[in-house]
Amino acid sequence: MSAIDDQQAKFEVTIPSDTVAGQTIQDQIIRKLEELAYGDHDLFGIRLALEEALVNAIKHGNRLDPQKFVRIAWQIDSNGCRIEIEDEGEGFNPVEVPDPTADENLERPCGRGIHLMRAFMNAIVYNERGNRVVLEKTRTIMESEPTSE
To answer: Which of 51, 30, 45 is nearest to 120 (CA)?
Structure first.
């Protein structure tokens, strides 16, 4: 087993509805992924999905209300990551978000973030209320990366 397999990060924090606080947590998560030598493609996709989910929770979920908070929990190891983001908003139904790739929606800005999150993550699951999302990404092992045998 390689030393990298022994490294696991599991944290939970609550931040105010502030995009700067969201950026700080995003940077912390990305630093941990870099420590575990995640590839550039995975780092790009996770960063993008995480930023979209955090901005959605802060701006759309909590409507930038300083009295509301966002809870972020994450587990990261050498095999993948799981990030859970929950706001205090009313929630939404992700099925009702229009497909941004449909011809009639190409000029509309809504739905692009969710579409991108789905494109870069292995799984995206919302709770029934629609105020919590779980992002999961299995690490992509590149041929040049060592394996733990």
So the answer is: 45
